[in-house]
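Example 3.
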Amino acid sequence: MKKTLILGALTLAGLAATAASAATVDDVKARGKLNCGVTTGLVGFAAPDANGVWEGFDVGVCRAVAAAVLGDGNAVEFVPTTGKTRFTALASGEIDMLARNTTWTFSRDVDLKFEFTGVNYYDGQGFMVPKALGVSSAKDLDGATVCIQTGTTTELNLADFFRANNISYEPVPIETNAEAQQQYLAGACDVYTTDASGLAATRATFEAPGDHVLLPEIISKEPLGPLVRHGDNNWGDIVRWTFNALVTAEELGVTSANLAEMSAGSNNPEINRLLGTEGNLGEMLGLSADWAKNAIGVAGNYGEIFDANIGEATSIGLSRGLNAQWKDGGLMYSPPFR
Amino acid sequence: MSDSSKNSIAFVRTEVLPELPPPSNATGAVRWMRDNLFATPGNSVLTIAAILVIYIVLSATVPWMINGIWNSDSLSQCREILDGQSGACFAVLAERWNQLLFGFTYPKDIYWRPGLAFVLLFVAVAPVLFFDLPRKLLLFTAVYPFIAFYLIWGGSVMVPLVALAGFVAGAIVFLRLIKNSFAVSAFGALVAAIVVWYAGGFLIPEAEITEGAMRSIPSRDLGGFMLNMMLGVTCVSLSLPIGIALALGRQSSMPFIKMVCVVFIEFVRGVPLITLLFVASVMLSYFFPPEATVDLFLRVVIMITLFSAAYIAEVIRGGLAALPKGQYEAGDSLGLDYAQSMRLIILPQALKISIPGIVNVAVGLFKDTTLVSVISMFDLVGMIRGPILASTEWNGVYWELFLFAAVLFFVVCYGISQYSQWLERRLATDHR
């Protein structure tokens, strides 16, 4: 079997060994598919359903970009990556963009030579405790045992937080989220700490979610966003502004329900520019005039994607919080379409 | 006197009494229990403790299994149906069995293809495992890899045909030239195979087949237990010959060959498998231009094969070392050359001795195939840990899924172990 595979692989390699051109957007168009890196599975953010169709919050970003470039939100090849393989997959060109709840940090942006094109979810490290513990603030946690994933930034954040507040804790090191869930439920620790979205998703799977509360303190900044490689600014612009289009659409009240009506032309010039009935924004990006309309048409605007995958109506039940529009006191703020 | 003597003994039995059954406490279940379970006070305590443990385990698991829910759409629905009772949520298996077996991207309408390949695997393997079967069946075994490749990956039928033609051409050249010298014939065979493959490359249609029953499936769409089976079968069957070659090479008197084999074996054994897998998936993609990489499945097969070949080589070296020196000298004194004495005298005995060790490596290797989940290939464990536990419906179902994985692996590994025990009895390696 090995030899046949070598043969097959060599044949395929020969066929596919066209010189890699510099412009990612041309590669994507020639291929007819966007290669988008996602996680191997994170509740609400990316996971295939029973029919093998990917769905989730990060998946929504991939589909929007595919629709903007190719006009079809299903023209995506989802490449599952682990925390360890994601950056090499992007750097080696195996994927065109990465939308894998990746925290935007200085060293990833500068040292690893990637370009973060925005923040689609503002996360932060939180605490979950059983209601029976009677704790209402993380500052009351003096002397608590804390389940913590080893080798993560959360471990360091936790130490900083307790030191800054001059209280003590006893760490219970664990390897994975699944293990943490079991340990916490078995009472091996009083507190479980990780990203707040992860805590909410974990709590949603408990038999009695109401018996556990998330404490109000968020002790770190975890801006999660899509990223691309350094060196292809046009492609970075496409990903950045596709995401901005989703945010702007929510701000301007463009939804999947009224998209057709709005794109016929409206009195608001910014909506007209966004949806391509006025101006030539699409042309500047090297895309069709209705690129943003296609992107919004896949699953609606930012707010709709949020509500459908991780919002309060889902079992994960995250509130908008920091991820609300700037007008509503959140951080979602898109530069103008002009 | 005769009277008195007659009457002095009141009764004389003239026939033997029928045997009475032994007393009830020295027979049957009671006796067995006295002997085996309650022989001493210490044993009795241990027995009672063991029974207690078994009771605790069973009383927790049996109702959990019997109460199991097979029909539900999500974990929360399971819990509603159970209404606080203890019970398994097997509905996840009922809904996702196909993903667990075939991965989540393999098209549902062509599950019959890997299924057929799996059934044919038994036909192909049977003549290798059971040497009472007609030797002509080995012909099918030789062709099977190409059939399986075609069934699982699909695409143009020319790919496996050209590959097969290359091997056949190589074999023919080899047999023609073998009388001259081994090196010349091996080199000639290689050239012939490459020529056929190169020429055959033009016969392979460039367009991918994307429709119909035999459409081509990219490697990244493979997954589930199918992937474990494919990796396990391919790597075990490839690493056995490579391992034998390495073991012989390590014993060789030619310093260069010996050094290469020693360095290879020691290096590969000194590196964790997971490191090799990361090299296969991450490092190699830096060395190839994008879009022209070697298939990930192939890279992983090469790495696992090299890894297990090094282990098998050491096991076989143990077998070779166990043979008395007289066996080697016997071969020499009969005037056999190196290849003949190895093939006819040394290896049959060494391999017999090595069977338990080889099976040990094979079982370990099969279970190690689950490590590919760390390089984002969705084998059985990868499917469970990734997509299924990350779906909103099934997040939180651990026992049921991992129990299912354990059952599948146990069936295969126990089967391998039983076969090896049969083989050992059959070959009677201890000469008793």
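The longest helix of chain A spans residues 233-252. Chain A has two domains: 23-122+223-328, 125-220.
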